[in-house]
Amino acid sequence: MPVITPTELRAYTSFDSVKARSDQQLTDDIIQAEADIFDYVHHEFPTNEYPTVPVRVKLACKKLAEYYALSSLDESAVKGYKSEKIGDYSYTMADGSGLRGKPEITALLEKYVKPVIVEKPQVRMRYL
After folding, report:
1. Which of 14, 42, 10 is nearest to 29 (CA)?
2. What is the tens place of the pLDDT at every residue in 51-109?
3. Is residue 54 a contact partner of residue 105, using CB atoms and an 8 Å limit?
4. What's the pLDDT tens digit per position in 9-54?
């Protein structure tokens, strides 16, 4: 079950550039956000445990999907450019400008993290 839909992401964002992306592009951004969330909490919110996706999880997915949509639109940030010149026009980004890291979502998801159980093989030795 998808955590959010492209329609929900468009309703959440205040960026026109995100709203203008196609449903397929937003779906790809949502899939990437879901993968990050599922990896962090160690499960995919199965319907037998979660009849509906928790509101906090939806918000975390909206924040991450919006981030991925914006980062894919900012070609200069993706390529690591700090300055650009087009004809007579040029600009230089300050070190703190542009997209920073991913949005902080750990507080939203902490309640849903399941511990990873790692089974270690038991070795028994006996004297001969």
Report:
1. 10
2. 999 999 999 999 999 999 998 886 655 555 566 566 666 556 555 444 567 899 999 99
3. no
4. 999 999 999 999 999 999 999 999 999 999 999 999 999 999 999 9
Pick from 123, 13, 117: nearest CA to 65: 13
* Claim: this prediction has a pTM higher than 0.85: no
Greatest Cα pair distance in the chain: 86
Helix or strand or coil: residue 101?
coil
Phi then psi for 14, rounded to 5 degrees? -105, 5
Cα dist. 10→5, 14, 16, 94, 95 in Å? Answer: 9, 8, 9, 29, 29
Which tokens hold the place of 125?
């030795």
Question: What's the 3-state SS for 32-78?
Answer: HHHHHHHHHHCCCCCCCCCCCCCHHHHHHHHHHHHHHHHHHHCHHHH
